[in-house]
Amino acid sequence: MSLFNISSDISQDIPAFSTTVCPSWFRQELFNNAKNITIIIILGFINAIVVAGNILVVLAVFASAKLRTVTNFLIVSLAISDLLVGLAVLPYSISLEVLEVWIFGELWCQMWLAVDVWLCTASILNLCAISIDRYLAITRPVHYRTIMSTMKVRLLIAAVWMLSFIICFPPLVGWNDRVQDSEEITSYDNLTICALITNQGYVIYSALGSFYIPMLVMLFFYYRIYVVALKTSRALDRGFRTAKSSRSKSSPGSGQDGGGGSDVTLRIHRQRPRKPLVSLWEASFCAGFPSSPFTS
């Protein structure tokens, strides 16, 4: 028995899965139960939004040459992982949620659970890769284009998907939880529940690789981005205040013509526009400029 467990821990009220009973039972469960209809509508709507939204993201990036940046390649990878979740995972989850039984067979149960872990892990690791990209864009603006070249980003995306597959792969090759008492498992003619066995070793392995380590990485890099943004904002604010103070001292009403002291000139050196810095620079720029003489 593999880690991907197909158990039959279901209610005795569920009839045997057969060609004669199944259709009528499905009709009763799906269409004569207001709760199930509501769940199907809500979850189906959410699933449709997930699929449509991520398709639009992918199309937007590939349809516009201006959007084909290394950062957006990572976003496309994230959108693809979420799109595949909406296509290959969520529909079967909705069926399992409504019917409370797995009706698609043991083989697809194993594949579905593996794909579920793979795609969800890929989504999280893509978020982790995006945080690294943003950190380099903010803290290494001069060398960013060299560090995050198109080829390196492609390798990073490939590494994300390979690492995600490595995390979901062990149960398929024998890392499993053996059940010695076969009498505990009964059969309802393939009408079963598809769930992961709580193997302690794999749970720790999967949780570390899929959640805790990526979470710590993202927290670290976004904290560093916050620190850099805070320092930049404060530096710009101090510079603008100094320039404003110097200008007020040299104004005609103060009796100084500028010969008694030197004005502080604030300059922001930007060799050429760098897209990764635009949002941070504009945010800091607008925060300090409203009262400065440079906007008048």
From TrEMBL:
Residues 243-265 are annotated as: Disordered. The chain crosses the membrane at residues 37-63, 70-92, 112-132, 153-173, 202-223. Residues 53-296 form the G-protein coupled receptors family 1 profile domain. Gene3D superfamilies: Rhodopsin 7-helix transmembrane proteins (1.20.1070.10). PANTHER family: ADRENERGIC RECEPTOR-RELATED G-PROTEIN COUPLED RECEPTOR, TYRAMINE_OCTOPAMINE RECEPTOR. It is a multi-pass membrane protein. It comes from Larinioides sclopetarius. The keyword Cell membrane applies. GO terms for cellular component: plasma membrane. This is G-protein coupled receptors family 1 profile domain-containing protein. InterPro entries: GPCR_Rhodpsn, GPCR_Rhodpsn_7TM, Octopmn_rcpt. One of its GO terms (molecular function) is octopamine receptor activity. The keyword Kinase does not apply. Keywords: Cell membrane, G-protein coupled receptor, Glycoprotein, Membrane, Receptor, Transducer, Transmembrane, Transmembrane helix. PROSITE patterns: G_PROTEIN_RECEP_F1_1, G_PROTEIN_RECEP_F1_2. It comes from the Eukaryota. Belongs to the G-protein coupled receptor 1 family. It is found in: Cell membrane.
